[in-house]
Amino acid sequence: MESHMLFYNNIERINRKELEELQLRKLRATVQLLYDKNPYFGRKLRQAQVKPSDINKLEDLSKIPFTTKDDLRINYPTGLLNVGMDKVVRFHVSSGTTGDPTVVAYTKSDIDKWSELNARCLAMMGVKRGDVVQIAYGYGLFTGGLGIHYGAERLGAAIIPSSTGNTKRQIKLMRDMHATVLACTPSYALYLAETIIQEGLDPKKDLNLRIGVFGAEPWSESVRKRLMNQLCPEPYDIYGLSELCGPGVAAECHIKDGLHIWADQFIPEVIDPKTGEVLGPGEEGELVVTTIDKEAMPLLRYRTRDVTCLDLEPCPCGRTHPKISRIKGRNDDMLKIRGVNVFPSQIEYVLGKMEELGDQYQIILTKSGPLDDLKVKVEVKPSAVSDKPWDMIELKKKVESEIYSVLNLHVEVDLVEPGSLPRSEGKAKRVLDLRGST
Amino acid sequence: MPVTQICVFVENKPGRFAEVASRLEQVKVRILAFCIADAGDFGIIRLIVNKPESSIKALEGLAKSINQVVVIPIAEQTSLSKIANLLGDKKVNIDYAYTSAIPINGNLALILRVSDTEKTEKILMENDIKVLTQKDFG
């Protein structure tokens, strides 16, 4: 367990009271700065009649208006910049999968802090000097590749910056260079495992992978089990979003029961997405994050749209920073089917538990009359095939009833051939929305 | 000696049987018997071929199940009721049956998937009913 006891910075163990004092101090400074210097946020605060002197305790944060993705879009590309261009050393641009792209800027100090957060996350997972870290997140405008890269470099690990794509080469490198750590999206990790096995290799014997750093999309416990069986013994969840910096905002420790969010840099809140009301620990809602240590683009109460809950209980790992539960999905991923709220991750969890099914699935939304309808396509494992159609129909019914037991919703399941659903090298597109075309 | 049957799970859409048949043709495999059992969105293609091993290789990546079946040549004088009664009396269940697409060794053949393959072959041979083996398909 020695490797898991690695703390990159003693601030990870700072006592809770000191941490809160630090947060309040940094929060007040951030609010003061934006109030004085930032035309957009200054105006927003004045409109909400919030003065820096109103922030006297952490709970006062709730007086501050939310920032949303729309604020970033309105200010595209650099309207929210809080420093002169001579202080900016980097731009990243988010993929714009849910609308226009958004630009995020960094000063030298922002990059340094971001690097440190990733170093903390990786160290927490047990990554250390001597490890060979293959980073198969995209390098470039996307923050994933570079963020993890800086963290691994801080720890003195050897990096293979393989970026995305070229799966065969990824596998060759992983094998030849004896990679011990793999960083990529969980969906790509599953695809890698599948391809490795197809090539006749046994990941457990032919590879040296120890730790998986999987993030950039929500994934479930059943996928963790699959990755443990197929690829590497220690898959960890890492969380972040480009608006805040990129990966490294939060990650799992070896307890693997929630992700520590680095509270000396971020103040997390969970709110009811409808009313904006702040929810207590354990209550599920939308994660809202205030950055308290950023220079180029600080954000007040940024609505991440990610659904989670806060856990303030002390963690056996010794870190005092609060935890968020594994992300259930995005607010905008939530599907409302015949009055039932459905997160794709819930379906993934059910499918992942069933041994007869492969790793790939697709959720298809259609409209039948005024109602939305949902259908799940899932690949069967070759070993689950029978010569009798009835066995396959039984399997289909079993999947449908398992989904029903979790969602309380009748969902039609289509068993499809292995290899027939699209694979992804980055973020997987699990939901196919045909509601507009039917 | 039971005969190998290869079953391929395919989606019920155009071109799936074509893919299976072309892959086999490319490696010069002869399909001696086949049957498609459909179940709505998918179907199972059942195949009896002259070279099971190279067929399995040629069909790599497809979802398959490999089973054993009993193959009986049907001659003028073959009595289906006799075969069925012999098996029924000994509590062997016939799950499904189909016939070959082309003559094998001069005769069309009856392919039986049964609850107990070895027992079936034994019963048939004891009653002088010929059973084909994979070798007969050379």
Task: Describe the fold and architecture.
The complex is a heterodimer of chains A (438) and B (138). With 438 residues, chain A is α/β, with parallel strands linked by helices. Chain A has two domains: 2-14 and 105-331, ANL, N-terminal domain (Rossmann fold); 334-433, ANL, C-terminal domain (GMP Synthetase, Chain A, domain 3), CATH 3.30.300.30. Chain A has eleven helices and 21 strands. Chain A has helices at 16-37, 39-47, 69-74, 108-125, 144-155, 167-176, 186-198, 203-206, 221-230, 344-353, 389-407; strands spanning 88-93, 103-107, 132-135, 158-160, 181-184, 211-215, 234-241, 246-252, 259-261, 266-271, 285-291, 302-308, 310-311, 323-324, 329-330, 335-337, 340-342, 357-368, 371-380, 412-416, 431-433. A nine-stranded mixed β-sheet of chain A has the order 4-3-5-6-7-8-9-14-13. A four-stranded antiparallel β-sheet of chain A has the order 10-11-12-15. In chain A, a hairpin with a 2-residue loop joins strand 16 (335-337) and strand 17. Chain B is α+β, with helices and mostly antiparallel strands and 138 residues long. Chain B has two domains: 3-68, VC0802-like, CATH 3.30.2130.10; 69-137, 2-Layer Sandwich (VC0802-like), CATH 3.30.2130.10. In chain B, 28% of the residues lie in helices and 37% in strands. Chain B has helices at 16-26, 52-58, 80-89, 117-126, and strands spanning 3-11, 31-39, 42-49, 63-74, 94-99, 108-114. A six-stranded antiparallel β-sheet of chain B has the order 2-3-1-4-6-5. In chain B, strand 5 (94-99) and strand 6 form a beta hairpin. The longest helix of chain B is centred in the N-terminal third of the chain and has 11 residues, at 16-26. The radius of gyration of chain B is 15 Å and the shape is globular.
